[in-house]
Inverse folding.
């Protein structure tokens, strides 16, 4: 859509496209049917072979392939969005936006590949005067890890699924992908998988670079396959932790990038509540109910001053109507966690309609006070995936700092404040220790795909606090450094050759050369 | 030594220095005595408090502290080297060089902190035209992970111990360090710990930034302490794996950077053997016996063409005399592994003197052929820590590729070749998949501290293939990204403020600004 002129090649390679589609259909399990052990073994072997070729492909070729996927998906939007809608109950507008985000992400990664900093190339020329002793010629670059198993998420059928962020960053890094389809949208997954295969074939990528597998057992088996070198996942804490435990229990443990759970606390200072209470209440209401509350960045806890009119505004505001959740399992889990919270002695209902536990459920707000949360953080600070949030009142702003100190890792933490709030500097400092992203007077539910985005955080927000699953930095999850010492120019990877044939930024003898 | 003029401040802060030394002596266990649970709890609490202050310290201040440590250690070289010698049996020249390397490393990290790229600062200004939808202002920077437990190594009493690479990179990153002393050099560790504490106090660093703990149980308990946020280790595969398993089994799993084992295979091509056999034999002999073979980068396997005169040269060469190993445990393990290899049906002795299993042991060479290794890679490709290596003959260079394919992860892999060797490009490509560093016509036992150095590799070389434990990139192990969205200038970390007060390179709206 951004660059319609690149759509041309699609038609000129119809034969390759058809062959690829056929091959994918033969090797993969039938949509929805569980992938067998034999099928999985064959798919991983294909991934290994494809990965060997793909890893040696110049970044510009990988970039063209990513753009080709984006073009193919955009061209099929009129087909894909209704298919996604039928499987996920999400709204058409939301899904259209998600698809746009997904294809934008592919194109942004294509740009990043061509810019070249992602390779982290460093060249140290030999230096007989190096103070610790003569230095040999050493050159370092990031290279692909190898085959990656990606576990698709239920709540973003485009952006965190077959052609989503993990697949995009793994392919960009030069890794083949074995994608475990989420059972919530198998038909959409199969269709996107076929379109990706067509686009990859048309772009000359090796066959078998992306394979779809179906079923929990196939996912586990893939993660344990010794040929697989990394896993990535977006989903629940129990599900993600179980897979993490598998990945690290292997004879060869592998990196497992799990984005798990977060309550995304929002701290409203006294002055912000006094000056902008109405705006804060309205924006919070829109944010916690967005997508029926099924965002990992949903603001699940809102801290407001006791006596603030925000409480009354929330109680009396018109809430959005009931909206169906993604699937039965999520509906069931939502009701269970919400009921558990309501049974807590310190919790009372703020907005609790007849339909709170119905299917679909109406948005619900519950309330407590900060001392109760400090007394039982495990019981009260818990993710409830769906249209609910916990409003927590406090008396003194020092309690905001106390709460920040007891938090577990979070994807986001938000402050609604005024710049001269005395509590702000210390609150920012504490929240930065707990969250991957700290927001000021904004809401966490939008996660823009940018160069500086950070979608991660300490456990249980993720299993790897040093990484992000959104934004261009996410490519680094699937790369590992290799140093070459004393190699002749002809045997060096292009990124490290003295003549810099890829024209990329490099650190040469310690100095950035752009 | 590099910069003697910076040594001045030491004398002017004698009071602070003495106070710090006293505090360290009070809080830490007596040298050699196991640290109790209560002592550990107090030390970790001190580390947490120190870390809060240290994390907010400007990079220039951290740089000055690292340089101060370097100066203090260099000034004490005449005391430290003999102390190290008495505890490790390593040679004076080797230990002097190792201390020089250690202090150089501290100063190189000080320079890196001031240059500022390590912070990975990225700024995306708000952009209403961002193609996926209006982009908020997002700014990302790397911040310290928190308290780190460092497990010191036996074989580098300076460079991988109290003031070694892990401590240096953790302190540089802004993290406090709880250092588990290696039982092989407790007196040296205590003395270096005291000097570091003095230097840190003189530089104005918070008290308790580096604590020493003693005993296996204290090390395990430290790794399991919920306030600890990362671990790092250099040592054996079983020891490192046990600690890795602990770190990932915690309720909050934490990153564990273990540098474990490697056989560092060296591949001699036919033309190289024919043209430079004498040189290769002599250099290999020097490399595998360096430090009595107690380097993690010792070339433990040498592949040579069958019939090459390298075999005869090695057999008839004068080997270095017996040299004492680091400690009883290593002596015992060495003899056990070497005896096991000699009992293998396919292994024969190449150089096996009377003193091969004595204490101290004489250097030993054993031999087999590549088909035997391919038939039993697990039995024959095994690290034997001490003065021995396995010489493997091959008939056809395609066997070099076969062997490269069955290798597990390695710290290094070396080719002794000629530039026009037909096997070279594919061998380089395969070895880069298996090793952290690929060498050409050099030897792996020197690991220079540089910007491009990579001391790591896939498991079991390390537990984290994406990281290095040597070189400036090692700092990234102890950092995690945090994004700030929409924050007012005054609340942003200095690295992200619009005015760039630290004058560091940053990526602004996707473009590197140096």
């Amino acid at each position: 859509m951004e660059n319609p002129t690149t759509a041309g090649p699609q038609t000129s390679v119809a034969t390759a496209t058809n062959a690829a589609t056929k091959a994918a259909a033969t090797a993969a399990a039938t949509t929805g049917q569980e992938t067998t052990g034999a099928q999985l073994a064959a798919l991983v072997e294909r991934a290994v072979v494809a990965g060997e070729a793909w890893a040696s492909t110049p970044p510009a070729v990988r970039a063209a392939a990513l753009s080709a996927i984006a073009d193919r998906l955009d061209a099929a939007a009129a087909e894909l969005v209704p298919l996604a809608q039928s499987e996920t109950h999400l709204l058409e507008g939301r899904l259209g936006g998600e698809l746009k985000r997904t294809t934008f992400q592919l194109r942004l990664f294509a740009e990043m590949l061509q810019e070249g900093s992602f390779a982290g190339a460093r060249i140290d020329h030999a230096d007989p005067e190096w103070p610790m002793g003569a230095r040999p010629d050493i050159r370092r670059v990031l290279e692909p890890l190898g085959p990656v198993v990606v576990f698709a998420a239920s709540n973003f059928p485009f952006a965190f699924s077959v052609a989503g962020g993990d697949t995009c960053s793994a392919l960009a890094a030069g890794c083949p992908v074995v994608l475990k389809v989420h059972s919530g949208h198998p038909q959409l997954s199969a269709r996107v998988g076929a379109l990706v295969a067509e686009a990859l074939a048309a772009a000359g990528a090796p066959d078998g670079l992306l394979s779809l597998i179906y079923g929990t057992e196939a996912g586990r088996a893939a993660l344990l396959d010794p040929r697989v070198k990394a896993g990535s996942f977006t989903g629940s804490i129990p599900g993600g932790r179980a897979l993490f435990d598998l990945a690290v229990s292997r004879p060869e443990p592998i990196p497992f990038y799990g984005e798990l759970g977060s309550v995304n606390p929002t701290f409203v200072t006294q002055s912000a509540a006094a000056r902008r209470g109405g705006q804060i209440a309205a924006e919070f209401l829109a944010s916690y109910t967005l997508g029926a509350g099924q965002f990992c960045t949903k603001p699940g806890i809102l801290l407001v001053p006791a006596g603030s009119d925000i409480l009354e505004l929330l109680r009396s505001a018109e809430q959005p109507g009931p909206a169906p959740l993604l699937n039965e399992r999520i509906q069931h889990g939502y009701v269970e966690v919400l009921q558990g919270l309501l049974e807590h002695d310190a919790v009372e209902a703020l907005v609790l309609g007849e339909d709170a536990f119905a299917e679909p459920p109406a948005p619900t707000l519950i309330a407590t006070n900060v001392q109760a949360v400090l007394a039982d953080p495990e019981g009260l600070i818990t993710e409830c995936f769906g249209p609910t949030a916990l409003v927590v009142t406090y008396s003194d702003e020092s309690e905001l700092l106390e709460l920040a100190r007891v938090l577990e890792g979070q994807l986001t933490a938000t402050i609604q404040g005024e710049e001269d709030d005395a509590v702000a500097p210390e609150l920012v400092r504490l929240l930065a220790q707990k969250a991957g992203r700290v927001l000021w007077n904004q809401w966490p539910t939008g996660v823009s795909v940018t160069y500086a985005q950070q979608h991660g955080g300490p456990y249980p927000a993720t299993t790897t606090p040093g990484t992000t699953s959104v934004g261009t930095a996410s490519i680094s999850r699937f790369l590992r450094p290799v140093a070459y010492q004393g190699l002749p120019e002809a045997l060096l990877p292009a990124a490290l050759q003295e003549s810099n044939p890829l024209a990329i930024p490099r650190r040469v003898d310690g100095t950035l050369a752009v």
Observations:
- Residues 1-29 of chain A have pLDDT under 50 and may be disordered.
- The radius of gyration of chain A is 24 Å.
- Chain A touches chain B through 93 residues (CB under 8 Å).
- The CA atoms of residues 260 and 437 of chain A lie 15 Å apart.
